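## tool: complex_structure
## caller: assistant
## args:
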Amino acid sequence: MNDIQIRDVKVFVTAPRKINLVVVKIETSEPELYGYGCATFTWRHKAVVTAITEYLAPMLKGKPADDIEGLWQMMMGSSYWRNGPVLNNAISGVDEALWDIKGKRARLPLYSLFGGKCREGIAVYRHADGSSVEEVEESIQCYMEKGYRYIRCHMGTYGGNFNGKCQTFAKPDQAPDGAYFHPRLYMESVYRLFDRVRQDIGWDVELMHDVHERLSPAQVLEFAKTLEPYKLFFLEDCLPPEHMEFFKTLRNHTVIPLAMGELFTNPLEWKPLVQNQWIDFIRVHLSDIGGLTPARKLAHFCEMYHVKTAWHGPNDLSPIGMAAQMHLDLNSHNFGIQEFSGFSEEEQEVFPGCPVIRNGYAYVNHAPGIGVGFNEEKAKAYPPVEMDHSWLFSRLPDGTPVRP
Ligand code: GCO
Ligand code: MG
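## result:
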C-alpha cells in the first residue's frame, strides 16, 4: 500500500470571514490525488505556517501517504518538546489532509472509514447573544424557529460587557486599556438571564453557557449552584486549564453537567478529568491536539468513562476542520453535541462542499474523504487580516489581567 508518496506540502491562509484560517494541502505522487486539512490557530497563524513550511514539509516529502499513524508519531516526536498549540495545529493540517487522501483512495467518506455511522444527522448548537435579556430571547427564538434545539446563551460575550458599562467601573489611576469585566455583575446578569429565559421561553430548548475561564474557584461554586434550577445542558470552561484539580471539588458540589477542553493541547490536561468523570463533555479543538488521529483516540478513551464529545466549533475553524470533526461525530457512539457557528457565503465559496444544516441537524456530503474542497483562486480574494486581539486582554476592574 506504500505505493503513493507525499510529493508536496502547501499551506494557505485565507480570511473569507475576516478570521484567519490555515489550510494544508498535501499533494501526492499521483497527480490527481491530494488532500486538505485544517491547521487553524487564528491568533498565531504565522507561527503555524512557519512550522509547516520550515519543519514538517521537508521531513514529509517522499514519505508514504498511507502511513498516517507513523507520520503523526514522527511529526509529534521530532520536535522533542511537544504538545503545544502551534506544532499541534501544524501536525493537524497534515494529519487531516492524509485522512482526506485515504478516504479518496478508498472512495469512502471518512465516517465510513472510521467504522460507519451511529446516527443519520449531527445535532448542533448555536450562540445566542445580546446586550439585554430581550435581545438574547429574540436571538433564541430566531434559532428555535430554524429548528435548533440546543442554544448557548450569553449577554455581552464572555464575562459580559454590559454595553461598555465595564468601562465605567471605578478603576485606579492610569488603568490600562483592556476588555474589563466585573465578575459579580457578570454572575448576577447570567442568573437574571436564565431566570427570564426559562420563564419566557420555557423548557423545550436545551441551554448552555460558557464561563470561558473567567471566574475564581469560589465564584464558580456559587455560579454552578445558582444555575442548577435552570437545568442547563452544560456549563462550559468553568476554570482555566491550569486549575483542573478543582474540578474534583466542583464535581462534588453541583449536579450541573460540565464541559471542558477547547484550550487543551496536552493529554495530561484531559486524562484526570475523563478517568475521574469530573466532566460530562470533552470540548477540544481538534487541530489544537494534532488533528483527527488523536481525536479518534480521545473519543474512544472518553467512551470508556461515559464522557461525551462536544468538539469545539467556533468561527476560528475552517469548514474543512468542521467537516472533519463531523465525520467523527457521525461515527462516535459517545457523541454529545456539535458546536456550530455557521458558514458565511464567502466561506462556502472558498470551501465547496460545506456540511449543510436542516432543522437543527448537520449533514456532511458523502463524497470520499472529508468532502470539502478548497478553491485556491477564490481564497486569494480573502487575504489574511489583522485580527482584533483586544478582547484577549481581559482585566478585572482594578486592571488585573485575567485569562480571556
Ligand atoms: C467557544 C469558544 C470560542 C473561543 C474562540 C477563541 O466556546 O466557541 O469559547 O468562542 O473564545 O474560539 O478564539
Ligand atoms: Mg468556549
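## assistant note: The chain has two domains: 6-108, 112-368. The pocket of D-gluconic acid (ligand 1) is lined by residues 210, 212, 262, 312, 314, 316, 339 (CB under 6 Å). Handing back to user.
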